[in-house]
Each structure stands twice: as structure tokens, then as C-alpha cells.
Amino acid sequence: MQANALTDRLNSEAAVARHLNALLARDPRLRAVNERAGPFPPRSAPRGFVGLAKIICGQQLSVASANAIWSRFEALPGALDPQTYLGLDESTVRATGFSAGKYRTVRVIAEAVVSGELDFTLVEGLAAEEAVAYLTAHKGIGPWTAEIYLMFCAGHPDVFPAGDLALQKAVGHAFGLDASPSVKQLVSMALDWSPHRATAALLFWRYYAAIRDREGIIL
């Protein structure tokens, strides 16, 4: 999908429905997955620095823990603006529950935003692979973080976070595989779902929740 074709963002139920219908027509195997998964709404988070900081906050935490920490963090005066975040000392931020690593990662990102090296507006106009490459060029942003940002903050329609363990397990279960696909295998499989890969990810997360009675991702 070219940058100028990124017009149908996943930012409404109508958009998700359009992408889902096209996805099921493209790969009929997913109809059974959809029946088991049931309906799923679009999921969104704030754009820019705030959205990326929230994703980092929630990494490797339960939903309840992530929400509690984020509530304390966003209550800090200046925490949600990259310029003023740089004025907060580490002990103040870590008192909210942020680890030392997450404090440093968000600081590096804030510095990049303030310097103009990280432009979130630019990201939104790029095709999936270009956008991931742009984000991961900045220290502290890995592929999973970049892909989650693109999906939930930018509403990018053609991103599939193949490194997500829940997605690997869900796809393996849905297709009756002996083992969950590797990241490389899942990247290859997801190409068949382009340009609706983000909707495929939402579908498989919902499927994972249905078969495991738990959420597949923290946001």
C-alpha cells in the first residue's frame, strides 16, 4: 500500500467493518476465525508522544498494573509534553511505577521529538514498512512498539505485529499448526492479508481472547 493510499484508517467501527469484509473475501479461511472471535471494535490511543509513552508504559505488564501506573504518570505536571517531560527528574517519574528502562526510553523519545528528529506527522503518511523503519531508527523503539503505535495511535490499516506472542499462538491454533509460527513465518503469512493486516491482527487478538478468556494485548 502506497503512502497516498492510506485513506481508510482504522478509526471507526465502519472502517473496521469495511476492512474485515475485504479481509474475509481475500482469505476465506478467516471466516471460521471470525465466527469464533465475534465482534471487535476499533481500538485507539492518543497520537504522538503521549501515545508512544503509554505503549511503553504498558509493556510486559497486566492491564490493571499498566492502567494504574499510567494514571499516576499522566497526573504528573508536564509529563505528557515532551519538552516539559525532560524537566522531570528520574525519581519523580519512577515514583509513578515506571522502571528505570522505561524512564530512559521515554526520555530519549522526548529528546528526539523536541529536536525534530522524530516527526509523528511524517510517520502517518508512510507505508507500513517505511513507517516501522522510521520509528525503529530511534533508540528505544523496537519493531513491536512501532507496529503497536502505528495500529492504535495512527490507525494504520496495514500493520501486523508478528512479534506478538498472542498473535503467534492465535494463528497457530486457528490453522491447526503443530507449533506457533515464528516471527519470520508469521510475517510471511500476513502478507496474504495485506492491505488489511491490522484488521487481521485485531481479529486474531479477539480470537485469542475468545479461546483463552483473556486479552491478548495491553493498551
Tell me what you see in this structure.
It comes from Devosia nitrariae. Residues 57-208 form the HhH-GPD domain. It catalyses: Hydrolysis of alkylated DNA, releasing 3-methyladenine, 3-methylguanine, 7-methylguanine and 7-methyladenine. It is a single chain. This protein is mainly alpha-helical. It folds into two domains: 3-43 and 158-212, Endonuclease Iii, domain 2 (Orthogonal Bundle); 48-123, Hypothetical protein, domain 2 (Endonuclease III, domain 1), CATH 1.10.340. Helices cover 58% and strands 0% of the residues. The radius of gyration is 18 Å and the shape is globular. Residues 1-5 and 215-219 have low confidence and may be disordered.
Features:
mainly alpha; Endonuclease Iii, domain 2; Endonuclease III, domain 1; 2 domains; 13 helices; 58% helix; 0% strand; DNA repair; EC 3.2.2.21; DNA damage
Write down the domain tally: 2
Distance between the termini: 26 Å
Largest sheet: none
CATH architecture of the largest domain: Orthogonal Bundle
Helix content: 55-70%
Structural class, judged by helices and strands?
mainly alpha
Radius of gyration: 18 Å
Count up the helices: 13
Classify the fold: give the CATH topology of the largest domain.
Endonuclease Iii, domain 2
- What's the level 1 CATH class of the largest domain? Mainly Alpha
Number of extended strands: 0
Summarize, please:
The protein is mainly alpha-helical and about 220 residues long.
SSE inventory with pairings:
Blueprint: H1 13-26, H2 30-37, H3 48-58, H4 63-74, H5 82-85, H6 90-94, H7 100-115, H8 120-123, H9 128-136, H10 143-152, H11 165-174, H12 183-190, H13 197-212
Helix pairs in contact: 1-13, 2-13, 3-7, 3-10, 9-10, 11-13
